[in-house]
Design goal:
Elements lengths: L6 E5 L3 H9 L4 E4 L19 H10 L3 E5 L9 H14 L3 E4 L2 H10 L3 E3 L8 H7 L5 E3 L6 H14 L10 E8 L11 H6 L18 E3 L4 E3 L11 E3 L4 H6 L4 E4 L6 H19 L5 H11 L7 E2 L21 E13 L4 E6 L3 E3 L3 E6 L3 E6 L4 E2 L2 E2 L2 E3 L3 E5 L9 E7 L4
Parallel strand pairs: 1-2, 1-11, 2-3, 3-4, 4-5, 5-6, 6-7, 7-11, 10-12
Antiparallel strand pairs: 7-10, 8-9, 13-14, 13-22, 14-21, 15-20, 16-17, 16-22, 18-19, 18-21
Helix pairs in contact: 1-9, 2-3, 3-4, 9-10
Bound molecules: iron/sulfur cluster (SF4).
């Protein structure tokens, strides 16, 4: 068992996600800004101007914040990089996650703590030793087995490999989320077909599409057992988390900066409970089955344990999109909250809801919360159903703000 405290690191692509991570027990969050991160194609990315608020929210909630600057950098990116690093330094973001040597060098100049990104593909102790001159944490390549991870962490202790801070180097590994069939993101598919570089955060997910194989001599289409031949299932280590922790990795990272606050909330909560259970020796098969069921409710392509148990080849997904067992349907936005009586008012912009429905509220102040409608008031009158255009009120423990979004949760019968 590792002597280090385990740090649970959650993804955050929005302020809703940051709050969801905090509420669900994350020790740290990681995020990207502008286009210098691996989610550069995100619909509403954080901007440089958001760094101050992100740092403040994380400090107020006593969790760490790490910024990813882990794309391949071009010369024309350097000015933006320097501007971002100035803001990172000014606001006390805890570390930068990077792999490009330009970023590594600039972090030294700014004296900003550095974590080596999985994009650097660190797979052996000598690489850890090399990067210890620049960093304190290395995120190991996702293709390693737990045995290899364990050998690396043992060697760090044996050789007393210390990072810039003077403390022993820490090892971070991914424990949950999407996997690439390309080695730690080194993929040219999007560049080849759409002139969009995955290594600059612009992956267009070509591997996630169905393909046919055609015999060019006969034009015959070959039957393939699974048409998603390049799209691996998602990594899920909740069933082997005791082994993961034994490997000596002490930062456990959840993938998913492009996912919503519901995903961050559910996944972070499950892994928080699992880590605590391993620690207090109550980790059990029953709990694992419960967490697996919970994890399956949010976005996933099916699960496997990745390469950690020594699988040579990926397990391929059978799903075009998510295999989540629940889906959320957008209903409307918050309009008022009456704190004394704990009642929320929403305007329905789409679809309908009925008494008894389970609703999901996403918002910056509370992340993700679920509420069941026990009593429904529609346009001031008690009713069983509400439709587009209606103003609804219902008893709601969560303090609703005007920008909060309301979703109805349904079972996904196609999963
Ligand atoms: S196209 Fe697929 S394999 Fe390539 S970087 Fe994107 S997700 Fe990874």
């Amino acid at each position: 068992m590792t002597k280090n405290k385990i740090e649970l690191l959650a993804p955050a692509g929005s302020f809703d996600c940051i709050q969801a991570a905090i509420n669900s027990g994350a020790d740290a969050i990681y995020f990207g800004v502008e286009q210098l991160n691996m989610r550069a194609k995100s619909v509403s990315p954080f901007l440089i101007s958001d760094i101050k608020k992100i740092a403040a929210v994380c400090k107020a909630n006593k969790i760490k914040s790490y910024i990813t600057l882990n794309t391949v950098m071009y010369d024309h990116d350097i000015r933006l990089l320097q501007n971002i690093l100035s803001e990172v330094k000014r606001n006390g973001i805890d570390a930068v996650i990077a792999s490009d040597f330009a970023v590594i060098q600039h972090c030294r100049q700014f004296n900003i703590p550095l974590h080596i990104s999985t994009q650097a593909n660190v797979s052996n102790i000598e690489a850890v030793q090399f990067f210890s001159s620049f960093a304190d944490v290395v995120v190991l390549a996702r293709e390693l087995t737990l045995k290899q991870v364990s050998q690396i962490t043992k060697e760090i202790e044996r050789k007393k490999i210390k990072g810039v801070s003077g403390k022993l180097m820490k090892v971070e590994i991914f424990v949950h989320g999407a996997l690439c069939m390309a080695i730690s993101g080194k993929c040219y598919l999007s560049l080849h077909t759409q002139n969009a570089s995955a290594n600059r955060g612009a992956c267009t997910q070509n591997c996630r599409r169905p393909y046919k194989v055609t015999d060019t001599e006969t034009n015959e289409e070959l039957l393939i057992d699974n048409e998603y031949i390049m799209s691996p299932k998602d990594l899920c280590t909740i069933g082997v988390l005791d082994e993961v922790i034994k490997s000596g990795a002490c930062v456990l990272k959840i993938e998913g900066r492009s996912k919503g606050a519901d995903y961050v909330s559910v996944v972070t909560k499950c892994y928080r409970e699992a880590i605590d259970s391993v620690k207090n020796e109550t980790y059990s098969e029953n709990k694992i089955q419960h967490w697996k069921k919970e994890l399956a409710t949010v976005y996933n392509r099916g699960f496997w344990e990745g390469y950690y148990l020594g699988h040579q080849l990926g397990e391929w997904t059978r799903n075009p999109g998510s295999a989540a067992t629940e889906k959320k349907i957008y209903i409307g936005k918050g309009s008022k909250y009456y704190p004394k009586i704990k009642v929320a008012e929403f305007t329905i912009e789409s679809g309908n809801i009925s008494k008894g429905d389970t609703l999901m509220l996403l918002g910056t102040a509370h992340g993700m919360k679920k509420e069941q409608i026990k009593n429904l008031i529609v346009n001031g009158v008690q009713a069983d159903e509400a439709v587009k255009g209606d103003k609804i009120t219902f008893a709601c423990a969560t303090k609703v703000s005007p920008k909060d979004k309301l979703y109805k949760i349904l079972k996904n019968t196609n999963a």
